[in-house]
Amino acid sequence: MSGLFTAAFLRQIGWDVDVFERSPVELVGRGAGITTHPELLAALEQSGAGTHDLGIEVPKRITIDRHGRVIGERPLRQILTSWDRLQRLLRATIDPARYHLGHNFERVEQDERGVRVHFAEGRVERGDLLVGGDGIRSGVRAQLAPDVQPIYSGYYIWRGAPNEADLAPQTLASIFPYFVFFLPERQQVIGYPIAGFNNDLRPGHRRYNFIWYRVGDAQQLRAMCVDETGHQHDYSVPPPLIRRDLIAQMRADAERIMPAAFLDCLRHIERQFFTPIYDFSAPRIVFGRIALVGDAAAAARPHMGFGVAKAGGDAHALARALDAHDDVDAALAAYDAERQPIGERIMLHGRKLGTHLGVDLKTDEDRKMWKLLQDFEAMMDWIAVPNFLAAYR
Ligand SMILES: Cc1cc2nc3c(=O)[nH]c(=O)nc-3n(C[C@H](O)[C@H](O)[C@H](O)COP(=O)(O)OP(=O)(O)OC[C@H]3O[C@@H](n4cnc5c(N)ncnc54)[C@H](O)[C@@H]3O)c2cc1C
User: Fold this and answer.
1) Is 378:372 a contact under the CB 8 Å cutoff?
2) Most buried in the list 116, 244, 321, 385, measured by CB within 10 Å?
3) Burial class (CB in 10 A: 0-12, 13-18, 19+), 285
């Protein structure tokens, strides 16, 4: 997302931009839902991607208890979209001849005139500037700031997206139209509707995004990262290889604690998968003629649902800085000064919201926030709400 946003915004100010993507085939999301924010909608409009058929608007948030009873609600209109839809809108802004699949960044050299970028397949590209939008495990950042490493939060999520058509009428009536919370102790289950296959927004053809936060220390996570064939993975396991005993255990745990509607969702997820939650913020996001954007620069825990909005904001700020300065180095310094603190602020806000799960509470402030978030009313007021950054301005 950050790479595509960057290309769109830089092209608007007259730069020639090429995007190099590691994947040899067009990227398709794993049924991931994305919460939207005013900043994301603005970035999509300003980049030229637009917001056509972006997603599904929910009218409100509700919290339900173990028996499925609604115990709280908040009117809050919010558009929920999907990774696939955003990728497709942004992808359409790029000339296909400028988008290069199957290019794995290997290393970069630079001097005062620009960069030489080497790809694993042997291709070498020169440019005035390299923008690393290569995600939380960025290879660009690994070369320039190898000490900056994502930090495991102490929790992970199970997720998936069942088809609307498979869900029971009771599930469709009680939770499907809403942004829903179910909050057992030290856990969070969150659900909301998203588009179906091929961005199908028609009733009956949509999906429901299911997210279940669970606490698990680094040792437990390491054990979970042993796949069905016995192979140890570093960070996560490709969905088809997740061990069957883990899935069976997860389902058994769910049967014990979840309300019927969320159990119905879980039973109809074809391929559930888990994602460990990491975060970090790089102290610098510019290194000579190389700039980092999006998750490569700073990644927050997903409690705000703000990662793509931040990616768009980084890309736009970079283009604005380059447009405002004749000197590229001065522009990059201005970009670093503007966006590094914002990335760090968003990461810290994610930690604040993560205190709900009760992991590693270090300060009085952490404990105060943990206590506040034990109230489901507070959770509805804090999790993934629009305009949370305004409080810091
Ligand atoms: C569980 C979860 C839920 C989330 N929910 C939301 C949400 O509701 N709303 C929201 O806005 N955000 C959400 N996010 C965050 C969001 O997904 C990220 O912030 C966003 O994808 C960051 O975009 P990016 O382009 O910086 O990085 P990525 O999306 O990680 O993209 C990096 C790209 O770089 C490519 N790449 C990597 N290495 C190389 C290489 N060596 N050479 C070439 N290419 C390479 C990758 O293939 C990939 O295409 C969530 C994240 C998680 C984990």
Assistant:
1) yes
2) 321
3) buried
Residue with the smallest CA separation from ligand 1 atom 35 is: 134
Distance 67 CA to ligand 1 centre (A): 36
Q: Which residues line ligand 1 (CB under 6 A)?
A: 1-3, 20-23, 27, 34-35, 103-105, 133-135, 139, 157, 275, 294-296, 302, 305-309, 311
Please check whether residue 74 is in contact with residue 380, taking contact to mean a CB–CB distance below 8 angstroms.
Answer: yes
Give the amino acid at 48.
G
d(CA 389, CA 371): 22
Residue to probe by mutation, ligand 1, list 99, 295, 346, 389, most atoms within 8 Å of CB: 295
Query: First-to-last CA distance in the chain?
Result: 26
Assigned token pair, 293 = 């954007």
